[in-house]
Structures are given as C-alpha cells and as structure tokens.
Amino acid sequence: MEKRSKEFLEVGFYLSKFGEINKNENYPSPPSRLKVDKWNNAYRIFYEKLNGGRTVLAFERSLKNARDAFDSHLPNSQRIGWLADNKKPNPLGKESQIVFDNLINKSEDQVWEIIEKYSDLKVKEYKQIFEDLIAIQENESEYKTGKTEGGKKIVTSSSYERNPSVRNDAIKIHGLKCSACGFNFQNFYGDWGKGFIEVHHIQPLSENKGKEIETNPKTDLEVLCANCHRMVHRKKGITLSLQELKEKINKSIS
Ligand SMILES: [Zn+2]
Ligand SMILES: [Zn+2]
Known about the structure:
Blueprint lengths: L5 H12 L21 H6 L2 H4 L5 H16 L22 H10 L4 H8 L11 H13 L6 E2 L5 E2 L9 H11 L10 H5 L8 E4 L15 H4 E4 L1 H7 L9 H12 L1
Antiparallel strand pairs: 1-2, 3-4
The protein binds zinc ion (ZN) (2 copies).
The site of one zinc ion (ZN) has 8 residues, from helix 11.
C-alpha cells in the first residue's frame, strides 16, 4: 500500500470530522465549503497535490479509507466507521493518531487553514479531464511509477501528466491537435472525440532527481495523440523528444 503522508491523513481527518450531517439520510455530505455534492469530487479536490503517484481511482479509495478510519473516533460522526471485532473503534495507526491529536480540538476554519494549500476547488472545471485521465490510467501499463532495485520510488514523467489543472492549462495553451502528427480527435471521431488529447511532460523526470519542480505548461508540456504518446514512451528508460518522434514520422511517410 502507498504510504500515506501526514498531509494526506490531515485531509482524511478533515473530511471525516467536517462532513455535513444530513437529517434525512444516514450518510453525511462533503463539507459545504468544498461546494461539491459527491464524495468522489471532494477527494479529487486534493488529487493534484497529494496523489503521490496514485491513479485517480486508487487515490479516491485510499482517501476514503483514511477518512473511514477516523470516523469511529469522532463523537459526532454520522457513520460508525470501522469497528474491531470487540465493537470498539479500531486503534488508529501511529501517524493517524498524531494527526488526530493535533487536530481534534481545532475548528473547521482552523483545520481548513492547514489543508487549504493541498486543495484545488476548481475540480468541477476538470470533470472531463478527470474522466479522460481515469480512462487513460486504466489502460496505462507501460509508463507508470516503478521502483528501483533499492525499493526507492521513481516517479516517471507520467505523474506530471496526472495533474488536472496542469493538463487543463496545457490544453488551453497548446490546443487539441497532436504536436507531432497533427491528429485531431474531434476531426476524426466527431463529437465523441471532442476535447480529447493526451498531455506529455517533455523533461524526463530522472533529470530532476525526483525534486518537486514547478511545471511550466508552455515549455514543459506537449499535447500528443494517443498513438504518438505511446511511441514517445515505447521503450523503458527512453523518452523520445518531439523532434526525434517527428523525424521517425517523416521517415515512415517518405
Ligand atoms: Zn500524433
Ligand atoms: Zn508522456
């Protein structure tokens, strides 16, 4: 299982503690500050900052679990949460207990102040981008996060391509036509292909030595059709540049 960061657990606590009680239903709604109706969307608000290499669906499951684990420890929780066989709350993990103790006496405003920097409330604007991203991730097998021999996590460039707001910016800047071959999904597939393109991070992440750096959507990202994107990442450890890919396309045409 992915290690859950302190920030991740803080968000889990926030969602567990400050869900809105529904008088007519026995299940709480997401905190009203988040302005979403569905829990999935509440989780997605924190996806970009806290995904830690997880796919969207894995992230949602993991954050739901983190939230569940706090439920039975919170007196006003509308949900019972996880009880052990003896009907007592399951003890929290060490990290979760630290987060719990830090936050339990804080108000909603105070906890929000802590976690706000991990949030992106524009999540509704990215609805289609999330859907495309989930579909891509479900089919993605070659270029995902892996481990080195020492067990240290390598985040491949695809993790940058997971950022919904960065994707959104890339599409606004570079448009919806493949930078390598010119393919446009809507022209070919009609309405079904409208708005679809894949986003590729130009700089191989290994050169950044795993450091978190700001992605500049204008210079660091390209938009590619699904075919060209797979070709760029076809061989493990090699990422073709746009120029190299274009040269291959030209060769095969002539
Ligand atoms: Zn292409
Ligand atoms: Zn890529």
